[in-house]
Amino acid sequence: MLLHIVARGRIARSPEAELVDRYMKRIAWPTRITELPDTGGREPMAVAQGKRILLDEKGEMLGSMAFAERLGRWRDDGVREARFLLGAADGFDEPARAEADLLLSFGRATWPHLLARAMLAEQLFRATSILANHPYHREG
């Protein structure tokens, strides 16, 4: 299953970009990152049998194990792509939220987009490590 991050805004060269790159390289599953301008631009064509996950402060707060289980279930059900969308500064409107397969939140705090992207990359690495029974994750 392809793990695809579609993010508004350019990350350029920055400490956050280094974090994203570090975690994305460590993920054993296929990955892709698509950057869109803050406004406009076209999201890549939707994949049949794909899931659309919006990062949204109003979303579900999943622990790492629950997140891994969700990805594992999708993978096992034949989902070809899990597409994670990070919106612009104002987030997503109600129609976009309604179309999502999952609204995912990293808590009620407001996170800068570049940090949210790094946190997502780390959680994707952690989830795939959990699913591979790798000792990276330490359940407390």
UniProtKB/TrEMBL annotation:
<comment type="similarity">
    <text>Belongs to the RNA methyltransferase RlmH family.</text>
</comment>
<dbReference type="Pfam" id="PF02590">
    <property type="entry name" value="SPOUT_MTase"/>
</dbReference>
<dbReference type="InterPro" id="IPR029028">
    <property type="entry name" value="Alpha/beta_knot_MTases"/>
</dbReference>
<protein>
    <recommendedName>
        <fullName>Ribosomal RNA large subunit methyltransferase H</fullName>
        <ecNumber>2.1.1.177</ecNumber>
    </recommendedName>
</protein>
<feature type="binding site">
    <location>
        <position position="55"/>
    </location>
    <ligand>
        <name>S-adenosyl-L-methionine</name>
    </ligand>
</feature>
<feature type="binding site">
    <location>
        <position position="87"/>
    </location>
    <ligand>
        <name>S-adenosyl-L-methionine</name>
    </ligand>
</feature>
<keyword id="KW-0963">Cytoplasm</keyword>
<dbReference type="InterPro" id="IPR029026">
    <property type="entry name" value="tRNA_m1G_MTases_N"/>
</dbReference>
<keyword id="KW-0698">rRNA processing</keyword>
<dbReference type="InterPro" id="IPR003742">
    <property type="entry name" value="RlmH-like"/>
</dbReference>
<comment type="subunit">
    <text>Homodimer.</text>
</comment>
<keyword id="KW-0949">S-adenosyl-L-methionine</keyword>
<keyword id="KW-0808">Transferase</keyword>
<comment type="function">
    <text>Specifically methylates the pseudouridine at position 1915 (m3Psi1915) in 23S rRNA.</text>
</comment>
<keyword id="KW-0489">Methyltransferase</keyword>
